Amino acid sequence: MISESGGALEIRAALPTEAEAVAELHFRARSTYYPQGVPQAEFDWLEAWRGSIERVDGRVLCALREGRLVGIASFRTPDGADADTVRLFQFHVDPDHWRGGIGTALHAACVGEWRAGGRRTAVLDVHADNRRAQGFYARQGWVPDPGNPPAEGDHHLFLRYAVPPAE
C-alpha cells in the first residue's frame, strides 16, 4: 500500500468481479477528452474489460483508495511484438481524483511489473486531443515513437518508453 494525502492507495490485480466498476471508470475518464461523445459508445466495454481481466497473457491493475476504484491500467505483449515489448492499452484515473498522485503510483506499479517480466520497451497510443494525458506521459519519460509516426487522418499519437533496469 502507498499512503498519500488522500489516504492509503492500494494497487493490485483487478478481480473479475470488478469488471463493471472498471468499465464505468474507463467510460468516465474517456468522456473527458471526447467533447462530442465517446466513440464506440455502443461497444460492449463491460465484456471487453471482463476479457482483459481474465486474459492469461495480460494484466489489469487497479488502484483503490479507501476501497473505491480510482485508477486502472491494462497491458500485455502486443500481437506480433517481441517479448521485450509491452503495450499499455488503457490507463485511466477517475477524473474526480486527478492530480493526486494516483497516476504516478499506478505508472510506477506498471513499470515494476514490466521490469520484473523482463520488458525493456513499452508502447502506447494516446488521443491527439488528450493534452492532459500527453503531459502526464511526458513527465513519466514517454517520448514519441520514431518508428510509428501518426498516419494521415489518425487521431492518435504513438509513444515509447524505455523501461529502466532494476537498480
Structure characterization notes:
- This protein has 167 residues and is an alpha+beta fold.
- The protein has a single domain (2-162), classed as 3-Layer(aba) Sandwich (Aminopeptidase), CATH 3.40.630.30.
- It has helices at residues 19-31, 45-54, 102-116, 131-140, and strands spanning 2-4, 7-13, 58-65, 68-76, 85-93, 121-127, 143-144, 156-162.
- An 8-stranded mixed beta sheet has the order 1-2-3-4-5-6-8-7, sandwiched between helices.
- Helix 1 packs across helix 2 (45-54).
- It is globular and about 40 Å long.
- Residues 1-5 have low confidence and may be disordered.
Keywords:
alpha+beta, disordered N terminus, 167 residues, 8-stranded mixed sheet, Aminopeptidase, 8 strands, 31% strand, globular, single chain, 29% helix
Number of helices: 4
Q: What order do the SSEs take from the amino end to the carboxyl end, as H and E?
A: EEHHEEEHEHEE
Task: Calculate the mean pLDDT score and round it.
Answer: 83
Basic shape = globular
- State Rg: 15 Å
- CATH homologous superfamily? Gcn5-related N-acetyltransferase (GNAT)
Number of domains: 1
Please give the structural blueprint:
Blueprint (H helix, E strand, L loop, with lengths): L1 E3 L2 E7 L5 H13 L13 H10 L3 E8 L2 E9 L8 E9 L8 H15 L4 E7 L3 H10 L2 E2 L11 E7 L5
Parallel strand pairs: 5-6
Antiparallel strand pairs: 1-2, 2-3, 3-4, 4-5, 6-8, 7-8
Helix pairs in contact: 1-2
Structure summarized in a few sentences:
Helix content is 29%, strand content 31%. The chain is of the alpha+beta class. It has an eight-stranded mixed beta sheet with strand order 1-2-3-4-5-6-8-7, sandwiched between helices.
